Amino acid sequence: MSTAAHPTPARPSRVPNPAAMVRQRFRVWWQARLPRTDTLLLTQRNVYILPTRAGFMFALTLMTLLVASINYQLNLGYVLTFLLASSGVVSMHLTHNTLRGRWPARGAVGWSRCGR
Fold first, then answer.
1. Are 96 and 49 spatial neighbours (Cβ–Cβ below 8 Å)?
2. pLDDT exceeds 60 at position 17
3. In the beta sheet, which residues pair with residue 105?
4. What's the DSSP call for residue 100?
5. Looking at the domain assignment, is residue 69 inside a domain?
6. For residue 39, what are the β-bridge partners?
7. d(CA 27, CA 21)
8. CA-to-CA dists, residue 77 to 27, 55, 64, 74, 92, angstroms
9. How far is 44 from 41, CA to CA, in rounded Å?
């Protein structure tokens, strides 16, 4: 038997992924903006209201109502559309004001057993 070393195949050169580079830069920026601590004062600079699937569906519903109201010239449709839109804006404002000024703390978790 021959003990000659097998040649290793050449690896293809890695092309930098632009999406990965953007994600990495965003992650570095995010970590510099909000350092890890056990307590954090929630202010208007770090309380974010992000849309969910239900929020996107709500926006789609509002757009559909607005287009239908414009198309069919429905004054009560305008009332319903802008009433729903304003209630969404008011609820986001109240949520932001409720969270602002809180001190959420991460505490130590004690030992527990299943069923207790």
1. yes
2. yes
3. 39
4. T
5. yes
6. 105
7. 10
8. 44, 20, 11, 5, 23
9. 10
Q: Check if the beta carbon of residue 77 is closer than 8 Å to that of residue 25.
A: no
Domain count within the chain: 1
Show the tokens assigned to 5. 């070393």
- Six token digits for residue 63: 């757009």
The domain in which residue 95 lies consists of 52-102
One-letter amino acid for residue 51 of the chain = P
Closest CA to 81 of 100, 67, 93, 94: 67
* Residue 33, pLDDT score: 78
Residue 71 forms part of a structural domain: yes
Burial grade of 71 (CB within 10 A; 0-12, 13-18, 19 or more): exposed
What would the pLDDT profile of 75-90 be if each residue is shown by its tens digit?
999 999 999 999 999 9
68 neighbors 77 (Cβ within 8 angstroms): yes
Q: Assess whether pLDDT exceeds 90 at residue 55.
A: yes
In a domain, 97, yes or no: yes
Least confident of 8-22, 36-50, 52-66: 8-22
The rounded distance, in Å, linking the Cα atoms of 89 and 79 is 15
The verdict on residue 94 lying in a domain is yes
